[in-house]
Specification:
alpha+beta, single chain, six-stranded antiparallel beta barrel, conserved putative lor/sdh protein from methanococcus maripaludis s2 fold, 29% helix, 428 residues, OB fold (Dihydrolipoamide Acetyltransferase, E2P), four-stranded antiparallel β-sheet
Length: 428
């Protein structure tokens, strides 16, 4: 009885192993369904993406060169009932603000009084010089007659020379005091802050009653943009992409404030001072654009696309097709053994596509790879033709069933509904 039981167990195990082997062999023999896409001819635009900030083309920072209290603002040129403020358009030499001039007026009066005093002192010194000159001439005429002592003659010469030097010193003091007067007058003029350019005030940083303290760094009072009809975009480009950027390159960008509208510009400057943030190196690229419409405002965030390369009427292959690699048993034995999937492409501008043969296997096609937009790539080769089916991957069970039934053409770029979902109800 026990022996019969052991024999039954052994037979059961052997039968299960045979069934598993048969099923596994059948599953392995089932051919894999390949997902193919047609080669299309069209246009391709290769771009480099970056983020930037809209800036005015030229901004002037207006500061103060003297200390004091802000007592008034200048009048708005377009509305005399208002003072200059944010968004005011100002002309060159227009008054922006006034600092309390009391201290500087007093300093100017003091300098002028000192100048007048030095001029009076010079007049006295010149009178003494003329007196010393007459005494020296008199002593000189008496010396040949021995009518004057030698000591008196020497004293006359010394007094003459000293008087002459005093006059020169008095003239130098007058020049010094005149310079002090000019300095005081200039400081008084600085109490009236004027615009050095014609432009638009984009920021006012002081209020009436605020004290301005000018030190080594002049305090900033106003920020004026010279011409808002021309704007710049300061884009931060990664160091991996900066080699593809060149001067006069066309650029397109969008801003969140104007959804759906694309602005155009061109690269006018590539700055060499790199910035590093969290071990990421970026370079600032200046893009100049026209803003005659006035839609672009300073400090807007721009999503920039640098148009690196544009191809028209080229064959386009999906990047998935260039990345796909078959298994060794999927390659047609008639294909060249040197083109096995394990072999890399000859160079960076070379690639490999795979097409299905009549035997249901694949063979390689060596192609030249061109520009890419991240989804498709321009390719060329002597064996490539438009609408040629190339392998883009392997289909899953659902795609394989659909392809086998012939009810739907697969597209690797179309979104697929989740498994088990039902189609929307149609008309009854």
């Amino acid at each position: 009885m026990k022996r019969a039981f052991v024999i039954l167990v052994v037979l059961g195990v052997a039968g299960g192993a045979a069934a598993y082997y048969a099923n596994h062999k059948t599953a392995s023999a089932t051919p894999t369904t390949l997902r193919t896409v047609p080669m299309k001819r069209g246009d391709l635009l290769s771009t480099v993406s970056a983020t930037g900030t809209v800036e005015a083309e030229e901004v002037v920072n207006i500061g103060a060169q003297v200390c004091g209290l802000i007592v008034a603002f200048g009048q708005d040129a377009h509305d005399r009932s208002k003072f200059v403020d944010y968004c005011s358009v100002v002309e060159k030499d227009a008054i922006l603000a006034k600092i309390d001039p009391t201290f500087y007026e007093a300093a100017l009066e003091q300098a002028e009084a000192t100048l007048q005093n030095s001029e009076a002192s010079l007049a006295q010194l010149e009178a003494k010089f003329r007196k010393a000159a007459r005494e020296w001439k008199r002593a000189e005429s008496l010396l040949p007659k021995q009518a004057i002592a030698d000591t008196d003659y020497d004293t006359a010469i010394s007094e003459y020379e000293a008087a002459k030097a005093n006059v020169a010193a008095g003239k130098a003091i007058i020049r010094q005091n005149k310079a002090s007067v000019r300095t005081a007058r200039i400081n008084l003029g600085y109490c009236t802050i004027k615009s050095p350019v014609r432009g638009t005030i984009i920021e006012r940083r002081v209020n009436i009653g605020q004290t301005v303290v000018a030190s080594l760094n002049a305090p900033s009072l106003f920020l004026i943009a010279k011409d808002l009809s021309k704007m710049q975009v300061w884009a931060s480009v990664n160091e991996a992409d900066i080699g593809r950027i060149r001067l006069n390159m066309p650029v397109s960008f969008t801003v969140d404030a104007h959804d759906g509208q694309t602005f155009r510009g061109e690269v006018t400057q590539i700055r060499m001072n790199a910035q590093m943030s969290q071990n990421v190196v970026t370079y600032t690229v200046i893009v100049t654009t026209d803003n005659s419409s006035g839609k672009l405002l300073p400090y807007m965030t721009a999503n920039v696309q640098f148009e690196v390369d544009k191809k028209t009427g080229v064959l386009l292959a999906p990047n998935a097709a260039l990345r796909w690699t078959p298994d060794t048993d999927q390659i047609d034995p008639a294909a060249n053994k040197k083109s096995l999937a394990a072999e890399p492409a000859p160079s960076q501008n070379r690639g490999r596509l795979w097409v299905v043969t009549q035997r249901g296997l694949v063979r390689p096609l060596e192609v030249t790879v061109g520009a890419t937009d991240g989804t498709t790539t321009a390719v060329s080769g002597k064996d490539l033709k438009e609408n040629m089916q190339v392998v883009a991957g392997e289909a899953d069970d659902e795609e394989a069933a659909t392809t086998a039934s012939g009810t739907e053409e697969t597209n690797p770029f179309m979104p697929k509904p989740p498994k088990g979902s039902r189609p929307p109800p149609g008309p009854m």
